[in-house]
C-alpha cells in the first residue's frame, strides 16, 4: 500500500507482547487495541545480523492435522520463493523482505516431524516449544512448530498467536544458534483474536467475517500469523535487527502493520481485498497449486509505509 499516511493498528490485534524467553523471542499478538500511530512509522535497524541467503524450513506438526490442513501451510511456504505464480503473488509479498539491508531470504522446505501422540502433553510452555523445534536440523534452518486446535500454549490467545525466537543447539551444536517459529491453530480457543478477519471479533465493530480462502478458518488464520512471524524472523532474528520500540516487545516488519490487508483498512476493517467469484472467499495473494491466501501488510523500508499487495 504505497501511501504516505500512517498505518493503523487494528483493535483486534496489538503490539507484540512477549518477554525474552530462552534467548530472545517475539510474537504476533492479537490483543484488542485501537492504537493509532501519529508519527511516521520507522523501524530502526539495530545493526544485528539478518537471515539472508538460503535457509531450510523444517516443520514439526504437534497434534493432529489433516493432510489438507498440512498442504495449505506447506503450499504457502513453497509459494514464498516461487516465480511461477501470477500476480498478486505470495512471492511478490515476500520480496519486500529483500529491501531490509538488501539481499534475499530464500526459504526451502526441509524435513517434517509428525508428533500426533502429544509427546509433551497438551499444555505447553515456551521451553516445550523450543524443545520441539530443537528436534529438527539446526544448520541454516528455521524450525517451525505448528500446534493443533486442542493444544494450549503459554500466552496463546491472551497475548500472542505466534512466536519467533532463537535458541542454541545441544550436543555438538551448542555453539550454533537456530531460529524457531511457533504458530497455533486458534479455531477452538480464540478465533476472534487469532483468526480475524475470518471470524467475528470478540470486541469492537461486529462486521461480517470474511470467507477464508481455503475453507478452513483456523488454518487460514495460521497462515496470517505464520507470515507475520516469518517476516519478523528474517528481518529481526536475534532481537537486534529491524524493529521499533523495546526489544522485548517490538514492532516488526508485519506486526507494525497489524490489521491491514488491503487499501483503506482501519480498525475492524481489513481493507479492499479480492473476492473469488465462485466461492466468495477473500484473498490478496496467489500461491502454488492454485492456492489463494490473505496476507497482512508489510512495512516497506524504502517508503516507510505499510505495503499491501492490493
UniProtKB/TrEMBL annotation:
<feature type="signal peptide">
    <location>
        <begin position="1"/>
        <end position="27"/>
    </location>
</feature>
<dbReference type="InterPro" id="IPR006766">
    <property type="entry name" value="EXORDIUM-like"/>
</dbReference>
<keyword id="KW-0732">Signal</keyword>
<protein>
    <submittedName>
        <fullName>Uncharacterized protein</fullName>
    </submittedName>
</protein>
<comment type="similarity">
    <text>Belongs to the EXORDIUM family.</text>
</comment>
<dbReference type="Pfam" id="PF04674">
    <property type="entry name" value="Phi_1"/>
</dbReference>
<keyword id="KW-0964">Secreted</keyword>
<keyword id="KW-0052">Apoplast</keyword>
<dbReference type="GO" id="GO:0048046">
    <property type="term" value="C:apoplast"/>
</dbReference>
Amino acid at each position: 500500500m504505497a501511501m504516505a499516511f500512517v498505518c493503523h493498528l487494528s483493535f483486534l490485534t496489538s503490539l507484540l507482547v512477549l518477554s525474552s524467553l530462552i534467548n530472545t523471542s517475539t510474537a504476533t499478538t492479537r490483543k484488542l487495541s485501537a492504537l493509532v500511530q501519529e508519527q511516521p512509522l520507522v523501524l530502526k535497524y539495530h545493526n544485528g545480523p539478518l537471515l539472508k541467503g538460503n535457509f531450510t524450513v523444517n516443520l514439526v506438526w504437534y497434534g493432529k492435522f489433516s493432510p489438507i490442513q498440512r498442504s495449505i501451510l506447506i503450499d504457502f511456504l513453497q509459494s514464498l520463493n516461487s516465480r511461477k505464480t501470477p500476480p498478486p503473488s505470495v512471492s511478490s509479498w515476500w520480496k519486500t523482505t529483500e529491501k531490509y539491508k538488501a539481499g534475499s531470504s530464500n526459504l526451502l522446505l526441509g524435513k517434517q516431524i509428525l508428533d500426533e501422540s502429544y509427546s509433551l502433553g497438551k499444555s505447553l510452555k515456551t521451553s516445550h516449544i523450543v524443545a520441539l523445534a530443537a528436534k529438527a536440523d539446526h544448520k541454516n534452518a528455521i524450525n517451525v512448530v505448528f500446534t493443533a486446535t486442542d493444544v494450549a500454549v503459554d500466552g496463546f490467545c491472551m497475548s500472542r498467536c505466534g512466536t519467533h525466537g532463537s535458541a542454541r543447539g545441544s550436543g555438538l551444536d551448542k555453539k550454533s544458534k537456530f531460529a524457531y517459529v511457533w504458530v497455533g491453530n486458534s479455531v477452538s480457543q480464540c478465533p476472534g483474536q487469532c483468526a480475524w478477519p475470518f471470524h467475528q471479533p470478540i470486541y469492537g465493530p461486529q462486521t461480517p467475517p470474511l470467507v477464508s480462502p481455503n475453507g478452513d478458518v483456523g488454518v487460514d488464520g495460521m497462515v496470517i500469523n505464520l507470515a507475520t512471524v516469518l517476516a519478523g524472523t528474517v528481518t529481526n532474528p536475534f532481537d537486534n535487527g529491524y524493529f521499533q520500540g523495546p526489544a522485548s516487545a517490538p514492532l516488526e516488519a508485519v506486526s507494525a502493520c497489524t490489521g491491514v490487508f488491503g487499501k483503506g483498512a482501519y480498525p475492524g476493517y481489513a481493507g479492499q481485498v479480492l473476492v473469488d467469484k465462485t466461492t466468495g472467499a477473500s484473498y490478496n495473494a496467489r500461491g502454488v497449486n492454485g492456492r489463494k491466501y490473505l496476507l497482512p501488510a508489510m512495512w516497506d523500508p524504502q517508503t516507510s509505509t505499510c505495503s499491501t499487495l492490493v
